[in-house]
């Protein structure tokens, strides 16, 4: 069994000692990691291993293979995938590898994005070479050390399962570790041919499953140290509101409450445990200066967006003269789509444990951007980033929420420890803090007008998008070019359908308001796929063509879209009759370098709402490094997509978020989730793409298209079940 | 509700006892008509009541009383646990309980979704928190006592039909509405939920009047 | 001090009687396998067994647990007759993993009361446990597999 370790410099308190028979895993903590000398936390792994050829892999004298992840494990399975990449080149048993998150440290910067980040469904493709090279380099050095030891040439040495052999000689990697460490680093090492792969392309079980089914896996929420105080925060009722005055007398009288501090985002209550802290928050009396945030109102926002959409915005894509082409169209189709704000609502509420001592800070939390958080905490505390150490622990879900350019939750924890003067605090958010805390998928509106020729094919496409920019106001703002935040238009401006249309215009309005927004699993594609694929379906019906055939015609020059589309159509028996009361819809969409087609099968509940029974999915993601991992991610994306399409909605009234917990921010559960999900992977040697997000975008349009098949009515406002009940 | 837990438990046990229909009430003397279906001529009971009451025929008094009691019975605080089908209702809008909660044979939920897994012996403080009672449950599957969707007349019929009401005679019915702890929970709503339109005493008075005056079925 | 019996062990817990069992387990006793997800019995992440029933520990007060048997995921893992975790491993259910303790605790009651559950039974038993990673299809599959293992005395692999 693999070991699960964490990188904390001391043990978590009272780790579960009860272990299931047959499921034994050991939760070990490597030798105490001490902070470095005054003012400089020594970052990077300090495993004490005899052989540390790079930041990603260490080997100890007793044959422990330690893997350090440049990305965060938030459910997507990279704990396993990245280990597989090293194991492939190193010739070790992947199940015996000891995996841990890397520090916030430059060697862990994303190979393409220039910062330490887990996002954009990019971990596997971006690390495919680096982690294999880490393994290959180590193996080259171990072989060289063995050759020297055995007195043979390296070409006479073979490696398998952590042992180098040459004739009758053999030595374990551990035995060779110190000799290997003394050798100069090799130049560029060759990587193995695909035909020789032992792990890559084959399904490997997740290395973190054992710890995640017996309660021993440590999430940020589980970080505990002696003497630690727990902080709960009373947040402003309206975005941007400021504390005017606090009456903390009643809160302070609650047994266990130790301190009440004011911070820029509200008032924090520090206590011996979360329950006391939470009770303290409830007992606070705070007078707020509400500010301009009170003006935000979902219904008036929709009206405002509708008005904006009547005028052209910044140009995101343009060719020809769309208006004159439209005038020549035999038929025009116009559709307006609306999308609400959405909270990510990961199962683990946001939390940060922070220690501040003699100018050194240490942080434990589940984060998608440890380096950004490190800088943010340093700024709040008046430290240099290298004085702040970030220990990433398992993320109880991320979906984008734990990768915030604003570092909102880490910054808040830093403000709390600064204001309190205490050495060690764990900040824990309630679910309501998460649901009402902003950083939502922005609300969007799409207005689409398409002109068709006599054959029913599109000849003019005019598309106006309205919604807040995610990049605006963050350090990503420099990526906004000519008023276009690509995260608002991706999936429309670069749509393969549009390339074939000579006269087209995509324009964007990016209104601002007080509600913080953020990427939400599949970012812009959460809405653009719906606008495109639902519209295409309307065009197919207007043209009197089968929706599959129509797409095949339009995408004839896009082989990867076609490959996914054709495979899904075959697996779903497209065109064959369905049982009574069942209806199909289809959609295809490219996102994060992968191409996904889905056929959903729905029926209608007695109240007219939608029940999704089955989703058949085909994906071309290039090489599937861990095929069962790919399947798991697509299943996950589909369920996330179904939840948002049918149920998800955050609304505001007078600046107040109307939802607070899972009672009113409704998410899908076992009974309303598709009972059957099939994931088929296109056998593809194309460029590798992502899998964490691409399963989400086609879900909503495929459902809407199935609903049209069932009722002859188009769904254009999300979430669908609410729209159906309102109609 | 200010009953002691002990009393609640005793009443609860009694309620189940009755609900299951293993009735042990033996020496109850029922001095009024027990079955409105039989349509005993009005004059046979008229003489029993005072002149003041007689100013209005019993049939009218009885029906009026039921219409008062109906306001309580059909209020979300009561009706939510007397749904059509096997899923309880929730909230002031009586939406179907989230989480696909099912009645189960004994009315106490199923598997990992038993009522008392979330509903505590007392209301959990806070908005949208589970209301509580030591014996939170729905009527059992073989005696569903459906209120939802029923007109006053239909509900009165249900109330009186021993095959639907847990084999209760009038006295047992009165005992149930007057003393049962879970019924009493209706007057102890969780935070933020609508209160019943009258006190329990008033409700019991109307309910009793309905029965005492002949248990007439409302016209509609 | 409140006396509690958790995973067959007696504890004296320094907790106020109005503290939910969840926080006594996690913050006072350090049994962090039981998770906090919503605090209002909506998500099921905090599910533990109280006298064998799958209660939501975030709304179950410590006082209610006095004199009763509490079993957490840590205790369930020690039970050799429990096939759920074996099935969970076989199907590779978890993703982020945060909800899985609660999922397994709920599934344990289902399998105890219904050794051969249908999909509909699974819908009924498991709809109080939210998984935002959407591992529902795998949870369903693993419950069927565990049921089969349980029926066949663990011979199924």
Automatic annotation (TrEMBL), chain A:
Q: Which domain of life is it from?
A: Bacteria
Q: Which residues form the Aldehyde oxidase/xanthine dehydrogenase a/b hammerhead domain?
A: 214-292
InterPro entries linked to this entry: Ald_Oxase/Xan_DH_a/b, AldOxase/xan_DH_MoCoBD1, AldOxase/xan_DH_MoCoBD2, AldOxase/xan_DH_Mopterin-bd_sf, N-heterocyclic_Hydroxylase, OxRdtase_Mopterin-bd_su_IorB, TAT_signal
A Pfam short name: MoCoBD_1
PROSITE patterns to which the protein is assigned, alphabetical: TAT
Q: What is this protein called?
A: Xanthine dehydrogenase family protein molybdopterin-binding subunit
> Which organism is this protein's natural source?
Chitinophaga rhizophila
What are the leading ranks of the lineage? Bacteria, Pseudomonadati, Bacteroidota, Chitinophagia, Chitinophagales
UniProtKB/TrEMBL annotation, chain B:
Check the record and name the InterPro entries matching this protein: Cyt_c-like_dom_sf, Multihaem_cyt_sf
Q: Which UniProt keywords apply?
A: Membrane, Transmembrane, Transmembrane helix
Membrane-crossing ranges are 15-32
* Designated name of the protein: Cytochrome c domain-containing protein
Classification of source organism: Bacteria, Pseudomonadati, Bacteroidota, Chitinophagia, Chitinophagales
Automatic annotation (TrEMBL), chain C:
Q: Which organism is it from?
A: Chitinophaga rhizophila
* Keywords for this protein: 2Fe-2S, Iron, Iron-sulfur, Metal-binding, Oxidoreductase
Q: Tell me the protein's name.
A: (2Fe-2S)-binding protein
InterPro entries given for it?
A: 2Fe-2S-bd (IPR002888), 2Fe-2S-bd_dom_sf (IPR036884), 2Fe-2S_ferredoxin-like_sf (IPR036010), 2Fe-2S_ferredoxin-type (IPR001041), 2Fe2S_fd_BS (IPR006058), Beta-grasp_dom_sf (IPR012675), Diverse_Oxidoreductases (IPR051452)
Q: Where does the signal sequence lie?
A: none
Domain 2Fe-2S ferredoxin-type residue range list:
1-76
Classification via PANTHER family:
BLR6218 PROTEIN, OXIDOREDUCTASE WITH IRON-SULFUR SUBUNIT
């Amino acid at each position: 069994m693999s070991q699960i370790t964490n990188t904390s410099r001391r043990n978590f308190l009272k780790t579960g000692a009860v272990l299931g028979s047959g499921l034994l895993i050991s939760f070990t903590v490597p030798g105490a990691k001490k902070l470095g000398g005054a003012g400089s936390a020594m970052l990077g792994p300090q495993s004490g291993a005899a052989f540390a050829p790079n930041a990603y892999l260490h080997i100890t004298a007793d044959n422990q293979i330690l893997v350090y992840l440049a990305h965060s494990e938030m459910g997507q399975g990279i704990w396993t995938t990245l280990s597989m990449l090293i194991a492939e080149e190193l010739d070790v048993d992947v199940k015996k590898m000891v995996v841990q998150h890397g520090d916030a440290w430059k060697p862990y910067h994303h190979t393409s994005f220039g910062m330490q980040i887990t996002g954009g469904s990019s971990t596997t493709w971006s690390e495919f070479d680096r982690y294999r090279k880490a393994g290959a380099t180590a193996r080259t050095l171990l072989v060289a050390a063995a050759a020297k030891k055995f007195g043979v040439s390296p070409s006479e040495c073979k490696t398998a399962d952590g042992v180098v052999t040459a004739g009758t000689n053999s030595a374990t990697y551990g035995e060779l570790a110190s000799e290997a460490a003394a050798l100069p680093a090799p130049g560029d090492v060759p990587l193995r041919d695909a035909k020789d792969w032992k792990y890559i392309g084959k399904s490997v079980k997740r290395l973190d499953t054992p710890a995640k089914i017996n309660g021993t896996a440590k999430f940020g929420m589980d970080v505990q140290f002696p003497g630690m105080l727990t902080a709960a925060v009373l947040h402003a009722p309206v975005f941007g509101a400021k504390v005017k005055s606090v009456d903390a007398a009643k809160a302070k009288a609650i047994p266990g409450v130790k301190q009440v501090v004011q911070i820029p985002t509200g008032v924090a209550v520090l206590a011996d445990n979360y329950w006391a802290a939470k009770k303290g928050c409830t007992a606070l009396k705070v007078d707020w200066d509400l500010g301009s945030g009170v003006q935000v109102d979902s219904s008036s926002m929709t009206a405002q967006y509708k008005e904006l959409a009547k005028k052209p915005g910044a140009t995101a894509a343009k060719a020809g003269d769309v208006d004159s082409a439209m005038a020549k169209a035999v038929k025009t189709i116009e559709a307006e789509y609306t999308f609400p704000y959405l909270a990510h609502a990961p199962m683990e509420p946001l939390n940060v444990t922070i220690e501040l001592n003699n100018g050194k800070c240490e942080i434990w939390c589940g984060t998608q951007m440890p380096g950004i958080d490190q800088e943010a905490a340093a700024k709040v505390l008046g430290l240099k980033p290298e004085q702040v150490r970030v220990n990433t622990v398992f993320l109880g879900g991320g979906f984008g929420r734990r990768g915030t350019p604003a570092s909102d939750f880490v910054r808040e924890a830093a403000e709390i420890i600064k204001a309190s003067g205490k050495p060690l605090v764990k900040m824990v958010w309630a679910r309501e803090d998460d649901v009402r805390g902003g950083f939502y998928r922005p609300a969007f509106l799409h207005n689409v007008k398409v002109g068709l020729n006599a054959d029913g094919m599109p000849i003019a496409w005019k598309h106006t998008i309205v919604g807040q920019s995610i990049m605006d106001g963050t350090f990503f703002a420099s990526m906004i070019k000519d008023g276009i935040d690509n995260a608002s238009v991706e999936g429309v401006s670069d749509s393969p359908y549009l390339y074939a249309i000579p006269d087209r215009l995509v324009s964007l309005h990016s209104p601002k308001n007080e509600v913080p927004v953020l990427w939400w699993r599949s970012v812009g594609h959460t809405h653009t796929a719906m606008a495109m694929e639902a519209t295409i379906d309307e065009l197919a019906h207007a043209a009197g063509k089968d929706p599959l055939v129509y797409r095949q015609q339009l995408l004839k020059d896009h082989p990867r879209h076609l490959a996914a589309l054709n495979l899904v159509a075959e697996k779903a028996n497209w065109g064959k009759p369905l049982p009574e009361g069942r209806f199909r819809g289809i959609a295809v969409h490219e996102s994060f370098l992968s191409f996904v087609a889905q056929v959903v099968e729905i029926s209608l509940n007695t109240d007219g709402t939608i029940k999704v029974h089955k989703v058949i999915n085909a994906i071309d993601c290039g090489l599937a490094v861990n095929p069962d991992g790919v399947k798991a991610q697509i299943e996950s994306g589909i369920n996330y997509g179904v939840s948002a399409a049918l149920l998800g909605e955050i609304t505001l009234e007078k600046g107040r978020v109307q939802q607070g917990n899972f009672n009113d921010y409704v998410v899908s559960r076992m009974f309303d989730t598709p009972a059957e999900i099939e994931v088929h992977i296109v056998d593809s040697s194309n460029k590798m793409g992502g899998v964490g997000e691409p399963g989400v975008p086609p879900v909503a349009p495929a459902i809407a298209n199935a609903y049209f098949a069932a009722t002859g009515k188009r769904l254009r406002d999300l979430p669908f079940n609410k729209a159906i009940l309102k109609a | 509700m200010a009953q002691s837990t002990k009393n609640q438990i005793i009443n609860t046990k009694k309620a189940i006892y009755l609900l299951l229909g293993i009735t042990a009430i033996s020496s109850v003397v029922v001095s009024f008509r027990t079955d409105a279906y039989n349509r005993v001529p009005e004059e046979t009971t008229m003489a029993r009541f005072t002149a003041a009451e007689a100013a209005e025929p019993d049939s009218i008094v009885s029906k009026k009383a039921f219409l008062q009691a109906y306001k309580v019975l059909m209020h979300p605080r009561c009706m939510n646990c007397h749904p059509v089908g096997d899923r309880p209702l929730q909230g002031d809008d009586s939406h179907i309980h989230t989480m696909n909660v099912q009645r189960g044979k004994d009315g106490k939920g199923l598997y990992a979704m038993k009522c008392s897994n979330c509903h505590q012996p007392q209301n959990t403080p806070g908005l949208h928190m589970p209301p509580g009672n030591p014996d939170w449950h729905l009527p059992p599957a073989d005696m569903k006592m459906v209120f939802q969707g029923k007109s006053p007349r239909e509900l009165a019929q249900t109330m009186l039909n021993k095959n639907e009401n847990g084999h209760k005679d009038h006295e047992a019915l009165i005992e149930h509405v007057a003393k049962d702890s879970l019924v009493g929970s209706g007057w102890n709503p969780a935070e933020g939920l609508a209160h019943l339109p009258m006190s329990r005493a008033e409700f019991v008075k109307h309910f009793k009047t309905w029965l005492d005056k002949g248990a007439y079925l409302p016209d509609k | 001090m409140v006396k509690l019996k958790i995973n067959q062990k007696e504890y004296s817990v320094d907790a106020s009687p109005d503290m939910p069992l969840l926080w006594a387990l996690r913050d006072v006793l350090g049994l962090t396998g039981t998770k906090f997800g919503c605090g209002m019995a909506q998500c099921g992440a905090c599910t533990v067994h109280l006298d064998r029933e799958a209660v939501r520990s975030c709304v179950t007060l410590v006082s209610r647990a006095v004199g009763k048997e509490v079993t957490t995921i840590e205790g369930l893992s020690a039970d050799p007759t429990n096939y759920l975790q074996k099935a969970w491993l076989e199907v590779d259910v978890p993703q982020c993993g945060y909800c899985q303790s609660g999922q397994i605790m709920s599934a344990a009651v289902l399998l105890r009361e219904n050794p051969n559950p249908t999909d509909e039974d699974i819908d009924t038993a498991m709809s109080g446990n939210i998984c935002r990673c959407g591992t529902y299809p795998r949870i369903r599959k693993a419950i069927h597999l565990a049921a089969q293992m349980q029926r066949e005395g663990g011979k199924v692999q």
